[in-house]
Amino acid sequence: MSKQIQAIRGMNDCLPEQSGLWQWVEQNIRDTVKSYGYQEIRTPIVESTDLFKRSIGEVTDIVEKEMYTFEDRNGDSLTLRPEGTASTVRAGNEHGLLYNQQQRLWYMGPMFRHERPQKGRYRQFHQFGVETFGLPGPDIDVEVILLTARLWQKFGLSDKVHLEINSLGSSESRAEYRDALVAYLKQHEDKLDEDSKRRMSTNPLRVLDSKNPEVQALLPDAPDLLDYIDDESRQHFDLLCERLAQAGIQYRVNSRLVRGLDYYNRTVFEWVTDALGAQGTVCAGGRYDGLVEQLGGKATPAVGFAMGLERLVLLLESLQLVELPAEVDVYLSLLGDRAEAYGLTLAESLRDALPGLRVQTHCGGGNLKKQMKRADKSGAAIALVIGEEEVNQAVVGVKYLREDKPQTQVSIEQLPSLLGGALSQNL
Ligand code: ATP
Ligand code: MG
């Protein structure tokens, strides 16, 4: 036998036993964004490398070391998208969706980052995200947070995640803070690791994000970002907090929350869970009022978030919160040649009569015992049994596989109403 080819490290298959939960998650997401009047945008998976360099920032983890970048046959530098915001803004600018308009958009799909694979961290992973444009006030910040809170509720996760918020202020106030932070870090340079020392000169706010306990220990006495933000950003933040409280959303102000991407200003937020170890952030977002202009459009306020679907699914699996219905309602068991020929058409007419009914037709012959084993394995609630005799009389045998009810026989005409009644909760 020749050697089997394996999937790329950190890139997962979604197997049939997992895809039901994924579909359930995706359907809830689609229903939820619809209920807020958001529209879907789909962008290519590959973009010009410059797009991500210019938006996410040259000295961020993503651009420095996580991107899948390659030259295509024309010699252009292309990158598999590591996130969705940059592409959304690029498409919005390119198609004139952003200037002088309001947009509420969402997307869902695979993203790529070359990270060390571990639980909740993969090289191909999936994000659902929302991006809104043209709305400067904290009202829309609250709306996108409410949308996420509604999702937690649908998923049964409301008491498993908590919200952290902060304000990064304006780029001017952040520059002032940066100087103060660097001055403080310089005094403690001996306790910084190499990464933090490097960041001190390239992207000092990211030091606040360090996972190193020694660096962490320095931070309680470091200057506080919220003491430096400008008056307008302060008002924006105060109103955001007030509106969140009015809406009954609990939150914690975390003045060290900075986020790893350069384009954020003012509001930033994360939804975090304690149930996934180090990979606890399931959703992260914020305001990025400068990005549209930075990518060549007219200045346009914007706010959005991205949710990591693998972490969400892991959380749902570990808590065993979701009970999915079986994939099949009715199993059609066919005994003998004539029944087989008849069965395929009968299954079609049932699907016509009861849209939403999930019928699996037995294929491959075999005796009743073997077919009933298959019927049981399919998860169906009902098996319909058809042999030569049933075809002659235009009837079917009805066996209840999950209930203690006697087997019956009904005419073909009565079958749709019998199935409709028995399976009404699914149809
Ligand atoms: P982290 O600090 O965990 O690396 P991040 O700040 O890089 O996260 P974002 O770029 O804000 O993450 O992406 C938003 C969300 O996407 C994260 O909160 C997480 O749920 C998910 N995510 C990010 N990177 C990965 C990955 N490599 N594998 C799985 N999910 C990821
Ligand atoms: Mg990361």
Topology:
Layout: H1 16-35, E1 39-40, E2 46-48, H2 49-56, H3 61-66, E3 68-71, E4 77-80, H4 85-94, E5 103-112, E6 124-133, H5 138-155, E7 161-167, H6 171-187, H7 194-202, H8 213-218, H9 231-246, E8 252-253, E9 265-273, E10 281-287, H10 291-294, E11 302-308, H11 309-319, E12 330-334, H12 337-353, E13 359-361, H13 368-378, E14 382-386, H14 388-393, E15 395-400, E16 408-411, H15 415-422
Could you explain how this protein is built, in words?
The chain is of the alpha+beta class and 427 residues long. It has 2 domains: 246 residues, Bira Bifunctional Protein, Domain 2 (BirA Bifunctional Protein, domain 2); 97 residues, Rossmann fold. It contains 15 helices and 16 strands. The strands form 3 sheets. Strands 1-5-6-11-10-9-7-8 form an 8-stranded mixed beta sheet. The chain has a 5-stranded mixed beta sheet with strand order 13-12-14-15-16, sandwiched between helices. Strand 12, helix 12 and strand 13 form a beta-alpha-beta unit. The longest helix has 20 residues. It is elongated, with a radius of gyration of 28 Å. The mean pLDDT is 95. The site of adenosine-5'-triphosphate has 18 residues, from strand 6, strand 10, strand 11 and helix 11.
